[in-house]
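# step 3/5: fold
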Amino acid sequence: MAKLDINEEMVRKLAELLDETNLTEIEYSVGDQSIRVSRGGQPVMSTVTSAVPQAPAAAAPQTSDGPRPGAVTAPMPGVIYVAENPESPPLIKVGDTVAEGQTLMLIEAMKTFSQVRAPRAGRVVEILVSDRTPVEFGEELVILE
């Protein structure tokens, strides 16, 4: 059995992010290594294995279809900000036309802000999140048409 190396600093940072965002679980992966930190659950030992099909959850709203067409999804778990600072207007609003690469929102993870950019040009038809709300990886943020 291989020795398990635990990056205590990463565990602490992820735990801090759980507290800041009120998330119950967060997972971070690099290559074939991943770390999951959760609040209020039972300790779980996990290893990377080959994919084994499992029965789908009964109440899963989205199946293998993935995000809706035109959806811009969260690139990481964190907290969404719709403006550059509290005094600024939102970066986008419904009806705006955006260019490819334009900043749509900001996401804060581990006290670092990252830009959520438009993957393509289009018109904003729906904004699915509000300011300062926690989001999960892959969660739909904006729908572009």
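# step 4/5: annotate
Residues 83 and 108 are 12 Å apart (CA to CA).
# step 5/5: archive (pending)
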